[in-house]
Amino acid sequence: MSYCANASRYDQMQYRYCGNSGLQLPALSLGLWHNFSDGHSLSSQRALLRKAFDLGITHF
């Protein structure tokens, strides 16, 4: 199964500068700390990650 990212994913997300580096990060990020034996399937984890990316979250 292939994945095609939402073309407008950067339009709604607010971005902020990270210090004086010039790097812009999304106002919202998603923590993906590895949780051993959490019981979630790989497909549900992948769906969550793709949905976040489609909404403009690029910092994990």
TrEMBL record:
GO biological process entries: methylglyoxal catabolic process
- Whether Cell cycle counts among this entry's keywords is no
The Gene Ontology terms for molecular function here are: oxidoreductase activity
Record InterPro entries: K_chnl_volt-dep_bsu_KCNAB-rel (IPR005399), NAD(P)_OxRdtase_dom_sf (IPR036812)
Q: Supply the alphabetized keyword list.
A: NADP, Oxidoreductase
UniProt xrefs under Gene3D superfamilies = NADP-dependent oxidoreductase domain
PANTHER family assigned: HYPERKINETIC, ISOFORM M, L-GLYCERALDEHYDE 3-PHOSPHATE REDUCTASE
Would you tell me the protein name for this molecule? L-glyceraldehyde 3-phosphate reductase
